[in-house]
Every structure is written in structure tokens, then in C-alpha cells.
From TrEMBL:
ATP binds at G50, P51, A52, G53, V54, G55, K56, T57. It comes from Methanohalophilus portucalensis FDF-1. This is Replication factor C large subunit. Belongs to the activator 1 small subunits family. RfcL subfamily. Pfam families: AAA, RCF1-5-like_lid. Heteromultimer composed of small subunits (RfcS) and large subunits (RfcL). Residues 443-489 are annotated as: Disordered. Residues 459-478 have a biased composition (Basic and acidic residues). PANTHER family: CHROMOSOME TRANSMISSION FIDELITY FACTOR 18 (PTHR23389), REPLICATION FACTOR C SUBUNIT 1 (PTHR23389:SF6). Part of the RFC clamp loader complex which loads the PCNA sliding clamp onto DNA. Gene3D superfamilies: 1.10.8.60, P-loop containing nucleotide triphosphate hydrolases (3.40.50.300).
Length: 489
């Protein structure tokens, strides 16, 4: 069986003129590009923000292609620690003028998705890369305001909007024509309506509808289930405001959440939602928590016996049980919020990841097992970073980012002093890179071996080394490599 090519990819526009809708943002993008033709503009980066599937990534790539710029893309599936952004985007953004080749466009997709542990410190690193860049950089984000104000202030902000139906329809018609699909009346309108200005989803729905068919009718229209954030809020509103237990329970069926997760949502919001007008705890709250505790007992049994059939009792008790606990309705709007436990767990996890990442760097530098570094050496490096004479060297040798320096120096926030140490260490790193380029440029042709680019983009190799360290710790705690000590610098 052959797997059909994804139409959204197949019909991705390759020219800016083919990008549908959003004329003003596209013009702003062209204006920014024009500035590059006259040298390095004041704003070296542009942020393309807006809803999903409206052509932001396509526009960035189309621009690069049209201009004949070399494109370097880092998307969310790449590991984007501050160090790696510095290495990949940083060296790419500074290098081409040295080697005299074409401009290089750096595209950072999902720039608003830098919160995971792996992306820690990434936002600050991007700002630094932009400051020092002499190459165009495009950041792509759904939520502009998820990016720091400092980062935004260094960029041209270009906002994309949902694509109006009148533009989605011709795009879909064109695809039908290319694929030889005959459409009955109203089919494309229905698809366009369902996808609310998201052209990617519209194309995907069209492909799903037209699979194995040459002619499609309205009844064939298949719309992919889209689990939006709104849906959990809708279900919770049903649970907290409604009185019918069966309806509340049924509402949970549309969610892609397990009762394990759903109970956390209900637990988090229940006290606030069932608070009496005079802000006293109501009897309803006691009854609802009683039902919730029963649901929790069932969840415990599911875990213990691995009997997932019991989930339905838990699901009913936590939704219907909560809804029917009300003796009277609790009017007025009260904000719903995600479980704070997840946030706390996330913070703990990110702290642990931070500690482990630093320990891995120390391990690589000192050629020590990570476990020992975690226990003994992190404190030592903390002391070195607190000492003015050693701080910059320590940060440089370990390639620490600001958050890591703050962690090691036990500072609650990134102070000016920490930023200074970090800046000085990066300066040191760039000087070293420039020296390397100099050595390379002056080496005889035959000794150059790999191209400059290969030697500069050593990020992947470094990453592999980092990963190796973890592996080596298990297999061979001390690989044969010359030992470096704390006193090396
Ligand atoms: N304005 C558009 N013009 C033409 N095709 C589009 C447009 N918007 C989306 N598409 C189609 O949808 C696909 C995805 O678009 P693209 O990746 O550019 O969206 P995006 O706005 O970057 O979305 P996300 O924020 O999810 O990354 C493209 O391959 C293309 O087929």
C-alpha cells in the first residue's frame, strides 16, 4: 500500500505571491527584506506571529528562497538549549560575511515554545544572537506575548491573521483541480467553515474527505477532531454550572483527557467555583469533595489492578458527582485555571533538569562521572562563580547560560552581575571562534579538509558528546581522555 503524500506539504507555497491572504503582513515582510538589500537594518529579526496554519512558516521559507538566501531552520523538535542556539544560530548569524557567501536566513520555528527544560534559557540566547547578528533572523510564534518584551523590542513584529473564507475557498478549489477531484456544491464551504481560517487544517480535511474518491459531496466531509484548550473549559463550565449529572458526564466524552488528569482540573477549581457569595465554604463544596474523594478511590483501584473499566465510575463521580452536589447554582464568573500541581511539578522537574545539565557539562569538562559532579563538583563551581577572579573562566569553560550561572550561584534571579559574567564569557567564546576562523583561513588549502561551515557547525557534534557523557557514565565512568581539573583555568 502506498502512503499518500500530505497535501498540506505538497501544496506548501514556494513563492511569497502564492501565500494566500495576509497581504499587509506579507508586505511588511517584503519591506523588512528590502532593508537588508541596503545593509544590516536596525531590526535584524522579524517575528511572524499569529494562529496556526495561516502561512507564517511558508512565508518565511518562501522569502528565503526568493532571495536566494541560505536557510537554517531550528524547530521545536531540535534541542534548543541556550548553548545550542548560540552555536547554531549564533555562528550562522555572524559567519557569512567572513566567508563572503550569500546571506543566510535563520528561522526559529515555535519561538514561543521555549519553556521546556531543553529550551531553558533559549529566549535570552535568541536575544543575544539577534544583538550580535549580521544576518536576517525570523522567529515564528503563535503567541507574540509569550515572548519576552526585550526580545520583542529587538524585532519587527509582523502579525498574521486567520485566513478569511473568501481566500480559503479558491486555495481549496485549486488543490481539487490539481488532484482531479470533482466537488459538489457547498463541500468546500463546509470545510472552510469548520476550520475557521486555518488553511492547513482545511487542506487536511479536504484530503481526508477526498481519500479514495473522485467526487465528493457535503455528506462526505470529514473534519478532524480538534482538541482545543477551549474544550476543557467548556466541559468544566458544564460540570460547575450545570445540575444534570448525566449531561456533565457526557460532556467529558469529547475530551482527550484521562480521568486522572480531569480530577486534577476539578480539584483545582472546585473551591473557587463553589464558594458562597459571602466567600464562605458552602455545603455544596463538602458534598462535591466527598464525591471527588470517591472518584479518587476508583482511580487508585485502576492503578492497583490495572482495570481501566473502573475509569467510568471515577469519570462519573468526578463530573456528574460534582455537578449534582450543588443545592443551588453558583452564579457569577470565576476564572478556571489549570492544576497548580502540574506547574509545581514542572518547576521541580526543570530544576532537576537544570542540575543534571550542568552536571553533564562539568562531567565533560573534568572528565568525571556525572553522579560525582552532581554531588561534589557543582558546589565547587558555585564557589568559583562567586569569585570575581574565576567567574568568567568558569562560565566560559562550561559554556554556562545565565540561568545556569544563577542556579550555581544560588541566586533567585538573573542579576546584573550574573549577566555581566555571562556576557564576558560569550565574548571570550566569540574571540576563540574568530581565532579558529583566522587559523582556518590562513591554513594552506590542502590542510583545510572539511569546509568552514562544517567545522563551525560543531553543535551537533557537541550535542552528541553531551549525550555520550550520559551513556559513558553507565558503561565506562572514566573515558580515556586527558584529565582537566578545576585549576585548568
Ligand atoms: N497563507 C497560506 N497560503 C498558502 N498555503 C497555506 C497558507 N497557510 C497555510 N497554508 C498551507 O498550510 C500548510 C502549513 O502552513 P504553515 O506551516 O506556513 O503555517 P503556520 O502559520 O506556520 O502554522 P504553525 O503556526 O502551526 O507553524 C502549508 O504547507 C500550506 O499547504
Amino acid at each position: 500500500m502506498t502512503i499518500a503524500q500530505d497535501w498540506a506539504e505538497k501544496y506548501r507555497p514556494t513563492k511569497l505571491a502564492d501565500v494566500v491572504g495576509n497581504n499587509k503582513p506579507l508586505q511588511a515582510l517584503r519591506d523588512w527584506e528590502e532593508e537588508w538589500e541596503h545593509g544590516v537594518p536596525e531590526k535584524k529579526a522579524a517575528i511572524l506571529s499569529g494562529p496556526a496554519g495561516v502561512g507564517k512558516t511558508s512565508a518565511a521559507h518562501a522569502l528565503g528562497k526568493e532571495m536566494g538566501w541560505e536557510i537554517i531552520e531550528m524547530n521545536a523538535s531540535d534541542q534548543r538549549t541556550a548553548g545550542i542556539i548560540e552555536k547554531v544560530a549564533g555562528s550562522a548569524s555572524r559567519m557569512s560575511t567572513l566567508t563572503g557567501i550569500q546571506k543566510r536566513l535563520i528561522i526559529l520555528d515555535e519561538a514561543d515554545n521555549m519553556h521546556g527544560s531543553a529550551d531553558r534559557g533559549g529566549t535570552r540566547a535568541i536575544t543575544n544572537v539577534i544583538k550580535k547578528s549580521n544576518q536576517p533572523i525570523i522567529l515564528i510564534a503563535n503567541d507574540l506575548y509569550a515572548l519576552s518584551s526585550t526580545l520583542r523590542s529587538h524585532c519587527v513584529n509582523i502579525k498574521f491573521n486567520s485566513i478569511p473564507q473568501r481566500s480559503v475557498l479558491p486555495a481549496l478549489k485549486k488543490i481539487c483541480k490539481m488532484e482531479g477531484i470533482i466537488c459538489g456544491t457547498g463541500v468546500l464551504e463546509k470545510i472552510a467553515e469548520n476550520t475557521g481560517g486555518d488553511l492547513r487544517s482545511a487542506i487536511k480535511d479536504l484530503q481526508a474527505t477526498a481519500t479514495d474518491k473522485k467526487e465528493i459531496e457535503v455528506v462526505d466531509v470529514t473534519t478532524a477532531e480538534r482538541d482545543t484548550k477551549e474544550s476543557i473549559f467548556k466541559v468544566l463550565t458544564n460540570v460547575f454550572k450545570g445540575r444534570d449529572p448525566v449531561e456533565a458526564y457526557r460532556a467529558t466524552f469529547s475530551l482527550d483527557e484521562t480521568p486522572e488528569d480531569l480530577i486534577q482540573w476539578v480539584d483545582e477549581n472546585l473551591p473557587n467555583q463553589y464558594l458562597d457569595k459571602d466567600e464562605t465554604l458552602s455545603e455544596d463544596l463538602t458534598t462535591a469533595y466527598h464525591n471527588l474523594s470517591r472518584a479518587d478511590i476508583y482511580l487508585g483501584r485502576v492503578r492497583l489492578r490495572q482495570n481501566y473499566g473502573l475509569w467510568r465510575y471515577a469519570g462519573f463521580l468526578l463530573s456528574g458527582g460534582t455537578a449534582m452536589a450543588k443545592k443551588h447554582s453558583h452564579s457569577g464568573f470565576r476564572k478556571l485555571q489549570p492544576p497548580s500541581m502540574w506547574r509545581r511539578m514542572g518547576q521541580l522537574r526543570s530544576k532537576r533538569n537544570m542540575r543534571d545539565n550542568i552536571a553533564a557539562k562539568v562531567g565533560l569538562h573534568c572528565n568525571e562521572p556525572i553522579r560525582d559532579c552532581r554531588i561534589d563538583l557543582l558546589r565547587m563551581y558555585g564557589l568559583l562563580l562567586k569569585n570575581e577572579d574565576y567567574a568568567v573562566d568558569a562560565a566560559y569553560s562550561l559554556e554556562l547560560d545565565v540561568d545556569e550561572i544563577a542556579y550555581l550561584t544560588e541566586s533567585k534571579r538573573v542579576t546584573k552581575k550574573i549577566q555581566k559574567i555571562y556576557d564576558a564569557s560569550r565574548e571570550m567564546m566569540h574571540e576563540k571562534e574568530d581565532e579558529d576562523i583566522d587559523v582556518f583561513m590562513h591554513a594552506p588549502e590542502k590542510d583545510r579538509g572539511q569546509s568552514t561551515l562544517d567545522s563551525m557547525f560543531s553543535a551537533e557534534k557537541d550535542l552528541a558528546k553531551e549525550n555520550q557523557t550520559e551513556g559513558k557514565e553507565k558503561d565506562n565512568p572514566k573515558p580515556a581522555k586527558s584529565q582537566k581539573t578545576l585549576f585548568d583555568f
